[in-house]
Amino acid sequence: MPRDLTNPIPQPIFKEPVFNETLVTADPAGFQQPHPSDDEVYKQIQDLLAKDVVGFDRSRIAPEEIFKLETALGSRGPDVVSQIERAAGIVFHALGDSGASNSRKYATEMQVADQVTIDAHTADPADRPAFLFHLGDVVYDFGESMFYYDQFYDPFRNYPAPIFAIPGNHDSFIVPGTPVGSEPLTIFRRNFCSEKPAITPEAGSLHRTAMTQPGVYFTLDAPFMRVIALFSNSLEDPGVISSEGGKWPAVPDFQLEYLAAQLKRIKDEQYRGAVLLATHHPAFTYSPSDVSGARGNHGCSSAMLRQIDKICLESGVYPHAFLSGHAHNYQRYTRELKFDAKEMDVPFVVCGNGGHAANPLVRSRRGQPSLEPMNGSRVDYLEVNPAVETSGLILEKYDDRNYGYLRISVNQDKLQIGFHQVSNQSILQSRYDLVTLDLKSHTMVAN
Ligand SMILES: [Fe+2]
Fold first, then answer.
1. Residues with CB under 5 A from ligand 1 (ion)
2. Number of folded domains that form the chain
3. 340, 333 in Cβ contact below 8 A?
4. Angle in degrees, CA 325, 418, 381, rounded to 5
């Protein structure tokens, strides 16, 4: 049962991180904490979702520093890392938007959480996911402490590896009247950006210790790969990573300096691993080209992408792939770039169907039918004034009916991003999409 949050007790600091329960237990039948409907609150704050950004603290470590998987694992770190190195590759999970705010969503969140958990327990050791990277929107409707148990700790109680996360808009938007100290980012930081592996009040009677990320933006460094994670703030749309020259004065600019420092480090080190960039809000999400009729469920975050692109240009480093959530479906784009005199294919992958909802790519509007695109459609019109030289954008494949997660593999030559639908079938049978990228050339190759 969750602890009584109105009467907090001192939380133990563990010397070692703990990731899962010793005993595997059956799924609970429902929420421990009743979750009243958020419909009324939602109606009242609708206009604020387009303008209320949030401030946040700097990461604990310097902009050029990295947070190592080995550190997150505690004393087991060296062994796990040497196992990964012996296997000559790493595998990890990524998903977004898992949080369940009603019983129907709870069932789908559990299905997704159970499937990644089964995969993490049963895959061959050399192919076993080393961690889960959560792409944001962990707890709905706005990151309340009392819902962390039902929406995060309990569904993932048997997941036997670290879980890292970037906050989504639902983990950061502040509902007016929220008491000081209970803001969603404060709760998020307690559970994901702890200085030490402590059991938090949100974990209730479960044993997963808080993750020890250095901040809400950070670079996870693991064998063969790095994820540069940026916090894209609290708006429904678009993603915002800086003040954008004073447009969002509450948002600090230090993520720009951080991104520049990280890319410079990659350049200076002549880093050969895969570089992934993660933001909760996607740079690209589908909408039809005719803006008068049916439209997509979310907009692109073009200004955010332009800022990222500019910093990439200045540093001479472009990530191999971008990962996002937020739009509640799966979408994979290829952005064709000419960068540093090279032709590059850059996968932009949205995986926001981690349990909360699976929404159609297009919704009908003003009597216009919701015509869906074909896989492989050119969608160059989604590029708005790009800061890098682009030659095209292709919506390669999407799934807006099923829930699912990403299974990402990296070795010294290749990055592979697979999307797995959640079903009763086995893990391999449920793979719907797979893209393979050659790391050296940044081009797609046969799977
Ligand atoms: Fe979101």
1. 137, 168-169, 326
2. 1
3. no
4. 55
- Asked whether residue 24 is assigned to any structural domain, the reply reads no
Q: How far is the CA of 259 from the centre of ligand 1 (A)?
A: 22
> Cα 100 to chain center, whole Å?
16
Cα Rg, the chain, nearest whole Å: 20
Alpha carbons 49 and 143: distance in angstroms, whole number: 15
> Helix axis angle, 302-315 relative to 254-269, nearest 10°?
40
pTM over 0.85: yes
Tell whether the model's pLDDT for residue 4 goes beyond 70.
Answer: no
d(CA 437, CA 447): 9
Residues 405 and 93 sit within 8 Å (Cβ to Cβ): yes
327 falls within a domain: yes
Note whether 101 and 356 are within 8 A (CB).
Answer: yes
Nearest partner of 329 among 297, 352, 305, 362, judged by Cα: 352
Check which CATH number belongs to the domain holding 143 and give it: 3.60.21.10
For residue 27, is it within any domain?
A: no
How far, in Å, is the centroid of ligand 1 from the Cα of 282? 9
Query: pLDDT tens digit string along 174-233?
Result: 999 999 999 999 999 999 999 999 999 999 999 999 999 999 999 999 999 999 999 999
Looking at the chain, how many residues does it have? Answer: 447
Q: How far apart are CA 387 and CA 309, in angstroms?
A: 6
Give CA separation, 161 vs 129, 254, 276, 350, 411, in Å. 8, 30, 20, 23, 20
Nearest to 380 by CA among 300, 296, 292, 443: 300
Listed residue (160, 156, 149, 118) closest to 354, CA to CA: 156
Q: Does 12 map to a domain?
A: no
Q: Which residue has the higher pLDDT, 156 or 288?
A: 156
Distance between CA 60 and CA 83 in Å, rounded? 29
The domain of 93 spans 39-445
Given the structure tokens 């005719």, which residue do they identify? 290
CA of 47 to the centre of ligand 1 (A): 16
Which amino acid is residue 335, in one-letter code?
Answer: R
For residue 249, how many other CB atoms are within 10 A of its CB? 10
Query: Ligand 1 centre from 70 Cα, in Å?
Result: 29
**Rounded distance from Cα 95 to ligand 1 centre (Å):** 12
Which secondary structure element, helix H or strand E, spans residue 295, and what is its range? Answer: strand 295-296
DSSP at 117: H
